[in-house]
Structure formats: structure tokens, C-alpha cells
Amino acid sequence: MNEKPKTIAVNKKTTMNSFKLEADSDMLTKRGIKKSLIHKFVTYCRKKSPWIMHMSSGGCNGCSIEIAACIGPKFDVERFGMVSKELPRHADIILIEGPMTTKLKNRVLDIYNKTPEPKVVVAIGTCPMSNGIYFDCYNVNGPLDRFIPVDVYVPGCPPKPEAIIHGIVQALEKLDEKA
Ligand code: SF4
Predict the structure, then answer these.
(1) What is the C-alpha end-to-end distance of the chain, expressed in Å?
(2) pLDDT tens track for 59-88
(3) Per-domain residue ranges for the chain?
(4) Residue 30: which residues within 8 A CB-CB, separation 6 or more?
(5) Cα Rg, the chain, nearest whole Å
(6) Closest atom of ligand 1 to CA, residue 158
(7) Among the listed residues 85, 120, 116, 121, the one whose alpha carbon sits nearest the alpha carbon of residue 22
(8) 89 and 114 in contact (C-beta within 8 Å)?
(9) 93/124 Cα distance (integer angstroms)
(10) Range in 8-12, 18-22, 71-75, 104-108 with the lowest mean pLDDT
(11) Is 59 left (phi over 0), alpha (psi -120 to 50) or beta?
(12) Is ligand 1 within 6 A of the CB of residue 98?
């Protein structure tokens, strides 16, 4: 039986990153540089080199292998400036794969809350969209968008690396809109 989804409390506290950014922009404003110009520059940098965090909320790890292929030498997303990060506080984009299992649900919410705004969530594969092959499992609470807002969906079981890269490019547009 699926659990009733809980309302999440999205953490809007100022994070270390945005605090530092604000302090830097205050310093630059005092030197006569316009805040709008700084904001435009920061948004440009985020879009040119997004930092990406990947996590699994359960599943078979098939999607993890395709995500790893994106980072590997064949597809090499780093040539587009994308960097893989381990900490949510450093991330602009979160890639989530797998169905929302009971065991990892709180971990996903925690990571979502710890990622500073503006952030974009990309659901990788069929599992976070509809629970996929885990549909109706006793320990699955998904789909993912019952718990957190999802900006981009990449369908497939698993999706190809090209589809994942396309999803990240769509995420960059969302990041630009949110900035
Ligand atoms: S979408 Fe398919 S490949 Fe990806 S985690 Fe789910 S079952 Fe595995």
C-alpha cells in the first residue's frame, strides 16, 4: 500500500553559498557595480557550468550506469562545463533516478532541502515518473512529484545517455527562468 504523501517543508534559509554570493555582490555594489549586472553574470556562470548532483531513490541502478556513461570519455558532459558534485549545497541541478522507496524517501527530501535556490530537479527514467516496474510494491511511495517539484522528466528504462544530456540541457533553460 502506498503511503499518503506528506507535505514537505522546503528550506528557504540562506545557505552558505548564497550568503557568500550576497556578501560578494554587496562588496561589488559598494564599488559601483550594479546588482542587476552581477545577477546577470552569476546566472550566466551557472548556465555555462552547472554543478550536478546525482542520487538514487531505489531502483535497479540501470539509470546510474547510463548517467555514469554521460560522465565517461564517450559522452563526456564535462566538455560542456557540467561538473558532477557529491554535496547538495554545491549543486544547481539534481538528477534523481529510481522509485521513491520508503528507505530513501527522507534522504531525497533532505537533499532537496539542502540544495540552494535556484535549483532544478530532473527525474531520470520511468521509475521516478510512475514507479515503473516497481509499481504497487509495498515499499514504494512514488511517483517523485508527489513529494518534490520535478522540472524535467527523462523517460526510458533506462534512458540513453543522449536523452539524459538532452534533459540536462532542458534543465539549464529552467535554471535560467528561475534565476
Ligand atoms: S527506470 Fe528502469 S533502469 Fe532506471 S532504475 Fe528504474 S527500472 Fe532501473
Answers:
(1) 39
(2) 899 999 999 999 888 998 888 788 888 889
(3) 16-48, 50-178
(4) none
(5) 17
(6) 3
(7) 116
(8) yes
(9) 12
(10) 8-12
(11) left
(12) yes
100 CA distance to ligand 1 centroid (A)? 12
The span from the CA of 41 to the CA of 62, in Å, is 37
Report how far ligand 1's centroid is from the alpha carbon of 159 (Å).
9
The candidate with the shortest Cα–Cα distance to 101, out of 120, 127, 124, 122, is 127
Task: Quote the CA–CA distance of 38 and 130 in Å, as a whole number.
Answer: 40
Calculate ∠ Cα 30-36-37, nearest 5°.
Answer: 80
The answer to whether the CB of 94 falls within 8 A of the CB of 116 is no
Instruction: Write down the mean pLDDT value for the chain.
Output: 83
CA of residue 112 relative to chain centroid, distance: 8
What pLDDT digit, counting tens, does each position of 118-161 carry? 899 999 999 999 999 998 899 999 799 999 999 999 999 999 99
Give CATH for domain 50-178: 3.40.50.12280
| Cβ within 8 Å of residue 109, ≥6 positions away | 8, 147, 148
97 lines ligand 1 (CB under 6 A): yes
